[in-house]
Write a structure and sequence with these properties.
The complex is a heterotrimer of chains A (about 280), B (about 300) and C (about 425). Chain A is mainly α. Chain A contains 15 helices and no strands. Helix content of chain B is about 75%, strand content about 0%. Chain B starts with 7 loop residues before the first helix and ends with a helix. Chain B has 2 domains: about 50 residues; about 240 residues, MetI-like fold. Chain C is α/β, with parallel strands linked by helices and about 425 residues long. In chain C, helix 2 packs antiparallel against helix 13 and helix 16 runs antiparallel to helix 17. Classes of the chains: A mainly alpha (about 280), B mainly alpha (about 300), C alpha/beta (about 425). The interface between A and B is large, with 89 and 91 residues.
């Protein structure tokens, strides 16, 4: 790159940086407000540039919601969200990859129709079937458990389809040569298709993880006590009828975001790359 | 399955191989099919007979009656339903250019970028990592009237500006939701576009330069056509998600003001959980499913044609 | 590879096992469950009294907290799934609905009679099912809605400050004051009707149905149980139109501006139309500048709402144990003191007389006096539909919708529901 191009690039970088900062400014608002102790101060400052800055940062809000004295056991809710997330992600990876592979490389006669059917199910919004799901879950005696917050989401049409697309891109010859060497259906799946598609697995893991972490309506309906309630519902508790506890609300929101941010920082490059490759194949 | 090898011994071995593989195939399909059947198909099918009754959420001494198509008729003649439908389409039409447009814009500039490309990309992707519940909390404070940041900003820039009640006025509420949804979701599309852009061969651009094409021409004749496949994916996914709009509306505006932000899913939710009319709500979800199915099929039809 | 997969399977197995076992807690023989909502001070009070009860009697209390804003969804889910807590808290006006549905049972025989004798008349009314006259719930708090005003603003416009409910402003006076207050430069909104509480909350009905009654209108005819001719009567339309005009004039605090404009730094609102709980919020900053004013008289006398969250026993509960806990809770001094400290409205006679807030003419005596003008919300099983229709209509009217058409639509929704249930026998209608 010659000097002129380099300079242009630098200017572009600066402009992009400024725009970027403006775009993520709302997040700065979130973090700044969570460090302000007095909720009236928060509401007062939200109307001006002071919303983005903290003059006397304090971790008091976090202590309030995470400490032993707290009324809303945010720590417990956090743990619940983690457990649900892990169960959901692990379950999804297994069930979805197996199904996708079986549809792709299996011999079952109606595979095409099955795939179409699965895609059609994606259209049904969760909220529309939540009431019947509620009755069903209670009949199965699974209300207020971890299981009922995990299992219904493990078989997700869109992720099965995503894996199907990824697996489709693997050259058939690889599988066939393994067949000749005596590998059976399961073996090919396990030892060839899975390892070759680790980026896809990571992508789905992250996407499904995020979906699970953000689940709101379903846990709201199905949990009765704090035992297995996740963090999203806890955030609702801070909206009181007469007053919104902005200080604790922002702090709880930050607590909710931190794991996502950490995972993001660690896997970011990987994740973005795999979305990219899945998009091309899609 | 290699069947060309002849010989009874081999055949027996292959046959049991077949058996085993079939069993494996079935076992691998089973969990997904069972779960989908139990947790998506069953509830959905359950709601079909329910939609022909006036069943309520709570048990009652007066049993629910079968009322035939009355729910459907009531929904189709309800002004609120059509408003919700209109809103959902408006939202989709607005969010596509805003969200995908912005995503493409940033992707375009980031694509050629050398300095700071990776950290910039990481920063731009950040809003996507924010849970929707929190996004609504943040933007509720931004849209606050009269003293939210947006109003403060406009007042600082335009002296004669009077603060607008962004979420409380019928003409601005839906647009406000469009922008906060776009803010949260554009990151994903940006990455998809980045990938799509990278796929366009460099030679095409060089050929265009040789032909004397300006930057704008290059975009229209090289970039845009090269993105066709990407566009199809992005538009399809964004449309389906837009038609299912619920969370932001439920938390921030409850479908108001005057139904200006009501959506199909929210309409169903209100009928089922607030008015406690689950027969009515079931009818609404079935109608919604048919509608979205229709739209998706239509989209696939038109986009497939342009693909050729 | 093999090892990694086996490890993953193990992890999956482990998490499944944990998920299966961890989630389900078994209630011991002597245990009861209790579903409730409330702000965190009240939550702490429930926790404390439950612990005390367990310490004294050995009976476990399983606490099921549900956030206020989604309480009804959670309760509906529990009822639909036959998974109702032994003791459930409910909002007063929903009593008829739950009693009619058979979800809750009469509880007088399980409660300490001393408590029942101590209940105020208004409190007893909210706990009684009109069909059989039995008490299906019990509570210690009641409520009312009144006006709060910034005294210095009132003085500036020369307004008369009522000293009792009999001296309440007429609607003409009230409107006149709103207009004058709007002209004061420091007042941005003459009136805050708490739109910030949201369209979905019971506040829409609770805060304003008595205005309709005070003008001779109402939501539903309480003899024939039809909304037609009542909610869309000329008197009701008049009231709705007034509120709409005030909103159009810009006199009313918009929803997204928050709920503290009376007493925040800017004191942008001059008056607030809110529940009794508002005093405790406004007093710390406004101090002596805060004055309680009775609701305006629209012509047929001041009418005020009542009722608050009360406790009921569900039909499959262990009723003796449940009654024991409730009695314990409502006679525990520390428990009642918490509600005193949050400025809650007394429902027990012993409390009224000793309350520093409600017995004080400088403070909330007017609010206490309003109990005599209280008319409960329609005690009818269709109440969920009634309130949902009303609050939606009210919100739409404030946003500028056509008043008669909106009220007609609400009337239709309510009457249709009653027809669907054959009039909710034995209520008729």
């Amino acid at each position: 790159m010659n000097k002129q191009q380099k300079r242009l690039d630098l200017v572009k970088a600066v402009i992009l940086l400024i725009v970027a900062i403006v775009v993520i400014a709302p997040l700065a608002l979130l973090f700044a407000s969570s460090l302000k102790d007095d909720r009236f101060q928060i509401t007062a400052e939200l109307g001006s540039i002071r919303a983005f800055f903290v003059t006397q940062p304090t971790l008091n809000n976090f202590v309030e919601i995470l400490g032993p004295e707290t009324i809303t056991p945010v720590a417990r809710f956090f743990l619940n969200s983690v457990i649900i997330l892990m169960g959901t992600v692990i379950g999804t990876i297994f069930v979805s990859t197996m199904a996708a592979y079986a549809i792709l490389r299996g011999k079952f006669r109606f595979r095409g129709a099955l795939l179409m059917g699965i895609i059609a199910l994606y259209i049904i919004p969760a909220e529309a079937i939540m009431l019947p799901m509620l009755f069903l879950s209670i009949k199965l005696k699974l209300a207020d458990t971890y299981v009922i917050q995990i299992v219904p989401f493990i078989a997700s049409p869109i992720y099965i389809f995503l894996f199907y697309q990824f697996f489709k891109a693997v050259p058939i010859s690889i599988g066939e040569s393994a067949q000749i060497e005596g590998a059976d259906f399961w073996r090919i799946y396990r030892s060839i298709y899975l390892p070759l598609n680790v980026p896809a697995v990571v992508t789905v893991a992250i996407l499904q993880g995020m979906e699970s972490w953000n689940q709101y309506l379903w846990p709201l309906l199905i949990t009765r006590t704090e035992r297995v309630r996740p963090l999203t519902v806890a955030i609702a508790s801070f909206f009181s009828i007469s007053d919104i506890y902005w200080d604790r609300l922002f702090a709880a929101s930050v607590v909710m975001m931190i794991p996502l941010l950490l995972l993001y920082l660690v896997f970011q490059r990987y994740f973005i790359a795999s979305i990219a490759s899945s998009a091309v194949k899609g | 399955m290699i069947r060309t090898i002849v010989g009874s011994d081999m055949e027996v071995r292959i046959k049991s191989y077949d058996m085993r593989e079939t069993v494996q195939e079935i076992l691998m399909l089973l969990p997904a099919i069972l779960l989908l059947a139990l947790f998506i198909i069953t509830p959905f099918v359950m709601s079909i007979p329910l939609s022909f009754t006036n069943e309520k959420l709570l048990p009652s001494p007066v049993p629910a009656k079968t009322i035939g198509l009355r729910n459907y008729l009531q929904i189709l003649t309800d002004k609120e339903f059509w408003k919700a439908l209109r809103n959902v389409f408006l939202f989709t039409i607005m969010v596509l250019p805003v969200q995908c447009g912005f995503a493409l814009l940033i992707a375009f500039f980031l694509n050629r970028q050398k300095i700071l490309k990776s950290p910039l990309r990481a920063i731009y992707f950040l809003p996507f990592v924010t849970p929707m519940v929190i996004v609504t909390v943040i933007w509720a404070s931004i849209y606050q009237y009269p003293t939210g940041i947006l109003n403060a900003l406009f007042t600082a820039v335009f002296r004669s500006f009077t603060p607008i009640n962004w979420l409380g006025e019928t003409r601005t509420a839906l647009t406000a939701i469009v922008f906060l949804s776009a803010w949260q979701a554009y990151g994903f599309q940006m990455v998809v576009y980045l990938a799509g852009l990278q796929d366009i061969p460099e030679e095409l651009y060089e050929a265009a330069s040789v032909d004397g094409a300006s930057g704008w021409r290059k975009f229209w004749n090289v970039t845009w056509p090269g993105l066709t496949n990407t566009n199809i994916l992005v538009i399809t996914v964004t449309t389906i998600q837009a038609l299912k709009l619920f969370t932001q509306v439920n938390i921030l505006t409850h479908g108001g003001p005057l139904g200006a932000t009501n959506t199909l899913v929210h309409y169903t939710y209100e009928a089922g959980f607030i008015a406690q009319k689950i027969g009515y709500a079931s009818a609404s979800s079935i109608l919604m499913f048919l509608l979205v199915l229709g739209v998706v099929l239509l989209q696939r039809f038109f986009l497939r044609r342009s693909e050729d | 590879m093999k090892k990694r997969i086996s490890v993953m399977f193990l992890v999956l197995l482990l998490s499944c096992t944990t998920a299966f076992t961890a989630g389900k807690g078994e209630l011991k023989e002597e245990a009861i469950s209790f579903m409730y909502q409330g702000i965190d001070i009240h939550q702490a009070a429930y926790k404390d009294v439950a612990e005390k009860f367990t310490a004294e009697t050995g009976i476990e209390v399983e606490l099921r907290y549900a956030p206020h804003d989604v309480y009804h969804e959670q309760l509906a889910g529990a009822i639909a799934g036959n998974d109702v807590a032994d003791i459930i808290q409910l909002d007063g006006p929903f009593l008829s609905n739950l009693a009619w549905s058979g979800v809750i049972v009469p509880l007088e025989e399980y409660i300490d009679p001393a408590i029942i004798a101590d209940m105020t008349a208004s409190n007893k009314a909210q706990c009684t099912y009109p069909i059989d006259g039995e008490m299906y719930a019990i509570g210690h708090i009641d409520s009312t809605v009144l006006l709060y005003a910034n005294k210095s603003y009132l003085k500036k416009i020369g307004a008369r400050i009522p000293k009792s409910v009999e001296e309440a402003w007429t609607i003409e006076e009230f409107e006149g004051y709103l207009a004058k207050l709007a002209e004061l430069p420091e007042v941005q909104y003459p009136l805050d009707i708490m739109r910030a509480y949201g369209v979905k909350s019971e506040w829409g009905t609770y805060g304003f149905y008595t205005a309709f009654l005070s003008n001779g209108g109402g939501i539903i005819d309480r003899k024939t149980w039809r909304a037609n001719g009542m909610l869309n009567s000329p008197e009701s339309v008049e009231v709705a139109e007034k509120f709409q005009t005030w909103a159009k004039n810009g006199w009313i605090v918009p929803a997204s501006a928050g709920a503290n404009l009376l007493f925040n730094e800017d004191r942008a609102a001059a008056m607030a139309w809110c529940g009794n709980w508002f005093w405790a919020q406004a007093y710390p900053t406004l101090g002596d500048d805060l004055v309680a004013v009775p609701l305006p008289d629209w012509g047929k006398g001041v009418k005020s709402p009542n009722a608050s969250w009360i406790f009921a026993i569900s039909k499959d509960a262990n009723k003796e144990l449940a009654g024991k806990f409730i009695s314990f809770m409502l006679t525990d001094k520390a428990f009642l003191d918490v509600w005193k400290s949050t400025g809650d409205y007394p429902g027990l006679k012993s409390w009224v007389s000793t309350d520093p807030l409600y017995g004080n003419p400088e403070k909330m005596l007017i609010a206490a006096q309003q109990a005599d003008t209280a008319i409960p919300r329609p005690p009818h099983p269709a109440y969920p539909t009634i309130t949902s229709a009303f609050m939606k209509a009210y919100a739409n009217i404030l946003d500028g919708a056509d008043v008669k058409a909106t009220l007609d639509a609400a009337v239709e929704e309510i009457d249709q529901d009653i027809d669907d249930h054959d009039g909710y026998p034995p209520f008729g209608g």
